[in-house]
From TrEMBL:
It comes from Pseudohongiella acticola. The lineage of its organism: Bacteria, Pseudomonadati, Pseudomonadota, Gammaproteobacteria, Pseudomonadales. This is Glyoxalase. Residues 6-136 form the VOC domain. InterPro entries: Glyas_Bleomycin-R_OHBP_Dase, Glyas_Fos-R_dOase_dom, VOC_core. Gene3D superfamilies: 2,3-Dihydroxybiphenyl 1,2-Dioxygenase, domain 1.
Amino acid sequence: MTTQLRPFHLAIQVRDLAEAHDFYGKKLGLPQGRSSDQWIDFNLFGHQLVVHVNPGIGSQGQVNQSNNHVDGHGVPVPHFGVVLSMAEWATLADRLRAIGTKFIIEPYIRFKGEPGEQATLFFLDPSGNALEFKAFKDIETQLFAV
């Protein structure tokens, strides 16, 4: 069954709007949409990501994270990201390395040779939100492979 994918909307909390603008807009290169003094819209590969300032996090604080064991790694929970083409994923991985990103999980191929084989990488934004970007050789057949 093929489903027409629609853009998702995700709103996350950040500790500082200028810091989030620098990270998402400049370092990741996401186009900016509307904004106010409390939030900014970003185009996350065709999806709407909105960062909302939460002063309760504080200048040194970060959002809470937990970890689950997946393929020998501690995967941060919660996390979000986008499934990219292999070429887009490689370009993003190179960009992240070039700007000195500290990865939680370095770019690698997960589940190699198994159903659902995928390229993946994890990192945190300055507020501690975990992001994962992944890619499959064939998204249509591998995204939900068992």
